[in-house]
Amino acid sequence: MGMEYVYAALMLHELGKPIEEEALSAVLKAAGVEPDEARVKQLVESLSEVDIDEVISSAAAAPVAAPVVSAAEAKAEEKEKGKEEEEAKEKEKEKEEEEAAIAGLGALFG
User: Fold this and answer.
1) Which residues of 71-109 are buried (b: 16+ CB within 10 A; e: fewer)?
2) 93 vs 35, 58, 105, CA distance in Å?
3) Closest to 18 (Cα-Cα) out of 27, 9, 26
4) Pure H helices in 31-70
5) 20 contacts: CB under 8 Å, gap ≥ 6
6) I need a labelling partner for 60 at 20 to 30 A (CA). Which of 46, 80, 98, 106 fits?
Protein backbone atom coordinates (compact mmCIF):
# COMPACT_ATOMS: atom_id res chain seq x y z
CA MET A 1 0.00 0.00 0.00
CA GLY A 2 1.30 3.42 -0.88
CA MET A 3 2.48 5.63 1.93
CA GLU A 4 0.19 8.41 0.71
CA TYR A 5 -2.79 6.35 1.90
CA VAL A 6 -1.26 5.95 5.35
CA TYR A 7 -0.35 9.64 5.51
CA ALA A 8 -3.90 10.58 4.55
CA ALA A 9 -5.26 8.34 7.32
CA LEU A 10 -2.84 9.85 9.83
CA MET A 11 -3.87 13.32 8.79
CA LEU A 12 -7.54 12.48 9.36
CA HIS A 13 -6.67 10.98 12.73
CA GLU A 14 -4.63 14.03 13.75
CA LEU A 15 -7.53 16.30 12.85
CA GLY A 16 -9.91 14.19 14.94
CA LYS A 17 -11.88 13.12 11.88
CA PRO A 18 -13.16 9.56 11.45
CA ILE A 19 -11.12 7.45 9.08
CA GLU A 20 -13.81 6.55 6.59
CA GLU A 21 -13.62 5.67 2.91
CA GLU A 22 -15.19 8.93 1.73
CA ALA A 23 -12.96 11.13 3.90
CA LEU A 24 -9.80 9.20 3.00
CA SER A 25 -10.62 9.43 -0.71
CA ALA A 26 -11.24 13.17 -0.38
CA VAL A 27 -7.85 13.75 1.29
CA LEU A 28 -6.09 11.72 -1.41
CA LYS A 29 -7.88 13.62 -4.20
CA ALA A 30 -6.97 16.93 -2.55
CA ALA A 31 -3.35 15.81 -2.58
CA GLY A 32 -3.56 15.06 -6.31
CA VAL A 33 -3.76 11.27 -5.98
CA GLU A 34 -6.49 9.31 -7.74
CA PRO A 35 -7.56 6.94 -4.97
CA ASP A 36 -7.86 3.21 -5.59
CA GLU A 37 -11.16 2.37 -3.92
CA ALA A 38 -10.03 -1.18 -3.07
CA ARG A 39 -6.96 0.16 -1.27
CA VAL A 40 -9.01 2.78 0.52
CA LYS A 41 -11.51 0.17 1.69
CA GLN A 42 -8.71 -2.20 2.79
CA LEU A 43 -6.97 0.52 4.79
CA VAL A 44 -10.16 1.70 6.47
CA GLU A 45 -10.99 -1.89 7.45
CA SER A 46 -7.46 -2.51 8.72
CA LEU A 47 -7.40 0.65 10.81
CA SER A 48 -10.84 0.06 12.31
CA GLU A 49 -9.27 -2.41 14.76
CA VAL A 50 -6.16 -0.38 15.52
CA ASP A 51 -5.59 2.15 18.30
CA ILE A 52 -3.56 4.65 16.28
CA ASP A 53 -2.51 6.68 19.34
CA GLU A 54 -1.07 3.54 20.95
CA VAL A 55 0.81 2.62 17.78
CA ILE A 56 2.24 6.13 17.49
CA SER A 57 3.32 6.23 21.14
CA SER A 58 4.95 2.80 20.96
CA ALA A 59 6.75 3.81 17.78
CA ALA A 60 7.99 6.99 19.47
CA ALA A 61 9.32 4.93 22.39
CA ALA A 62 11.17 2.50 20.11
CA PRO A 63 14.95 2.96 19.93
CA VAL A 64 16.16 4.80 16.88
CA ALA A 65 18.21 2.70 14.50
CA ALA A 66 21.68 3.85 13.57
CA PRO A 67 21.79 5.68 10.26
CA VAL A 68 22.28 3.40 7.31
CA VAL A 69 25.49 4.01 5.42
CA SER A 70 25.04 3.85 1.67
CA ALA A 71 27.21 1.50 -0.32
CA ALA A 72 29.00 4.46 -1.91
CA GLU A 73 29.74 5.99 1.49
CA ALA A 74 30.96 2.65 2.82
CA LYS A 75 33.23 2.22 -0.19
CA ALA A 76 34.60 5.74 0.23
CA GLU A 77 35.25 5.11 3.94
CA GLU A 78 36.95 1.81 3.13
CA LYS A 79 39.09 3.51 0.50
CA GLU A 80 40.04 6.28 2.96
CA LYS A 81 40.87 3.70 5.62
CA GLY A 82 43.03 1.85 3.10
CA LYS A 83 44.89 5.07 2.28
CA GLU A 84 45.48 5.73 5.98
CA GLU A 85 46.81 2.21 6.51
CA GLU A 86 49.07 2.56 3.47
CA GLU A 87 50.41 5.87 4.76
CA ALA A 88 51.06 4.31 8.17
CA LYS A 89 52.96 1.44 6.52
CA GLU A 90 55.03 3.90 4.49
CA LYS A 91 55.91 5.90 7.61
CA GLU A 92 56.87 2.69 9.42
CA LYS A 93 59.04 1.63 6.47
CA GLU A 94 60.73 5.06 6.37
CA LYS A 95 61.35 4.84 10.11
CA GLU A 96 62.89 1.37 9.75
CA GLU A 97 65.11 2.58 6.88
CA GLU A 98 66.19 5.57 8.94
CA GLU A 99 67.03 3.33 11.92
CA ALA A 100 68.97 0.99 9.61
CA ALA A 101 70.90 3.94 8.21
CA ILE A 102 71.74 5.17 11.71
CA ALA A 103 72.84 1.67 12.73
CA GLY A 104 74.99 1.46 9.59
CA LEU A 105 76.65 4.79 10.37
CA GLY A 106 77.19 3.63 13.95
CA ALA A 107 78.94 0.50 12.65
CA LEU A 108 81.26 2.63 10.49
CA PHE A 109 82.31 4.84 13.38
CA GLY A 110 81.74 2.27 16.14
Assistant:
1) eeeeeeeeeeeeeeeeeeeeeeeeeeeeeeeeeeeeeee
2) 68, 56, 18
3) 9
4) 37-47, 52-61
5) 44
6) 46
User: What is d(CA 36, CA 92) in angstroms, rounded to the nearest whole number?
Assistant: 66
The CA distance from 33 to 62, in Å, is 31
d(CA 14, CA 92): 63
Distance CA 44, CA 39 (A): 9
Taking the C-alpha atoms of residue 39 and residue 37, their distance in angstroms, rounded to an integer, is 5
* Sign of the dihedral through C-alpha 87, 93, 97, 103: positive
- Tens digits of residue pLDDT in 29-80: 999 999 999 999 999 999 988 899 888 888 877 776 666 667 777 777 888 8
Q: Are 47 and 19 in contact (CB under 8 A)?
A: yes
